[in-house]
C-alpha cells in the first residue's frame, strides 16, 4: 500500500486584511512544518537522534514507545498544496511534490507554476518532484447530463474566482475585473448572479468539457507532458461507468491501453 502525506495551508481569502503579510507567514510556517515532519520520519527510519529546532516548531525527543520500525519503502513522500508563488516555492524547495489547485489553467501551470518549481528544485539541489493536478472536468453521456455538469463547474469557478488568493490566475488571462465583480457579489451573497459571469471562454480555459470519449485525449493534450498524476475534479455526481470511459480514452491517448 502506498501512502502519501498531503498537506496545505489556507487563509481567509474571501475577506480583507493584510493578505500578503499573512501569506508570507503561512508559507514560512509551512516550510518549517514540512522540514520538521521529515526530521521526525528520518529519526524513525535511521534511528538518528531527533533534534529539530526551528522558529515555529521544536522536536527534540523521540521515545522508543513512539518510534515505529523503519519503513522498507522509506518515508512517505510529502506533497504540498499550493497556488501562489510563495507556497509553490516552498513546495519545490522542501516537499516531494505539489498538489496543484483545481482553479488553475494550462497556461498558468506552464508560465507561472513550472518556472517556480524549477527554480525551487535548483535552489534545493534536487530533481525528483511530482506534480498532481485535480483538473475540473465537465462531461456527460447525454446533452442533459452535460448541461448539469457545465452548470456545476461554472458554479465552482465562480466561487474560486471570487477569492483574492486565487486572483493571480485570472490576472494572467486578463480577467482581473471579473474577480472584482465576483468578489463584490460574493460579499453580498448573490451566488446565482456569480455563476452567470462565467462565460464559455473561461469555462473551456479552466475545465476540460465534452463527451467522455473526448475528455481523455484533451487531458493528455493539455497536461500530458507536465503533470504526473491527474485526478478528475467533478463537482457533480459522475457515474462510475462514465469515469471508466474517460480513463480508457486517456489510456488510448497516451498509448498505454491494455
Query: What's the name of the CATH homologous superfamily?
Result: Luciferase-like domain
CATH architecture: Alpha-Beta Barrel
Strand content: 5-15%
Low-confidence stretches: 11-19
Specify the number of helices: 10
Mean pLDDT: 91
Detail the topology: elements first, then pairings:
Elements: E1 5-8, H1 19-46, E2 52-53, E3 58-59, E4 78-82, H2 85-94, E5 97-100, H3 106-124, E6 130-138, H4 143-161, H5 167-172, H6 176-187, H7 191-195, H8 200-206, E7 208-209, H9 212-223, E8 229-233, H10 240-254
Parallel strand pairs: 1-4, 4-5, 5-6, 6-7, 6-8
Antiparallel strand pairs: 2-3
Helix pairs in contact: 1-2, 2-3, 9-10
Commentary on this structure:
A hairpin with a 4-residue loop joins β2 (52-53) and β3 (58-59). Residues 11-19 have low confidence and may be disordered. Strands 1, 4, 5, 6, 7 and 8 form a 6-stranded parallel β-sheet that branches. α9 packs across α10. This protein has helices at residues 19-46, 85-94, 106-124, 143-161, 167-172, 176-187, 191-195, 200-206, 212-223, 240-254; strands at residues 5-8, 52-53, 58-59, 78-82, 97-100, 130-138, 208-209, 229-233. The protein is globular, with a radius of gyration of 21 Å. It starts with a strand and ends with a helix. It has 258 residues and is an alpha/beta fold. Helix content is 52%, strand content 13%. It contains 10 helices and 8 strands. The chain has a single domain, classed as Luciferase-like domain (TIM Barrel), CATH 3.20.20.
Amino acid at each position: 500500500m502506498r501512502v502519501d502525506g498531503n498537506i496545505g495551508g489556507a487563509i481567509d481569502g474571501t475577506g480583507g486584511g493584510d493578505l500578503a503579510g499573512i501569506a508570507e507567514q503561512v508559507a514560512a510556517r509551512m516550510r518549517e512544518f514540512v522540514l520538521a515532519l521529515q526530521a521526525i520520519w528520518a529519526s524513525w527510519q535511521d534511528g538518528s537522534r531527533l533534534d529539530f529546532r526551528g522558529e515555529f516548531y521544536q522536536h527534540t525527543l523521540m521515545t522508543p514507545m513512539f518510534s515505529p520500525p523503519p519503513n522498507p519503502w522509506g518515508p512517505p513522500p510529502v506533497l504540498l498544496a499550493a497556488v501562489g508563488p510563495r507556497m509553490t516555492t516552498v513546495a519545490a524547495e522542501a516537499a516531494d511534490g505539489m498538489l496543484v489547485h483545481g482553479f488553475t489553467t494550462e497556461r498558468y501551470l506552464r508560465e507561472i507554476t513550472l518556472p517556480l518549481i524549477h527554480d525551487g528544485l535548483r535552489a534545493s539541489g534536487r530533481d525528483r518532484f511530482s506534480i498532481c493536478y485535480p483538473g475540473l472536468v465537465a462531461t456527460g453521456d447525454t446533452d442533459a447530463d452535460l448541461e448539469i455538469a457545465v452548470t456545476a463547474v461554472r458554479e465552482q469557478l465562480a466561487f474560486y474566482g471570487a477569492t483574492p488568493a486565487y486572483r493571480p490566475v485570472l490576472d494572467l488571462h486578463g480577467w482581473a475585473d471579473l474577480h472584482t465583480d465576483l468578489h463584490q457579489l460574493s460579499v453580498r451573497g448573490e451566488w446565482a448572479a456569480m455563476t452567470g459571469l462565467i462565460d464559455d471562454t473561461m469555462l473551456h480555459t479552466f475545465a476540460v468539457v465534452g463527451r467522455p470519449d473526448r475528455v481523455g485525449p484533451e487531458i493528455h493534450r493539455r497536461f500530458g507532458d507536465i503533470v504526473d498524476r491527474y485526478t478528475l475534479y467533478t463537482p457533480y455526481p459522475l457515474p462510475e461507468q462514465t469515469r471508466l470511459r474517460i480513463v480508457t480514452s486517456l489510456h488510448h491517448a497516451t498509448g498505454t491501453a491494455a
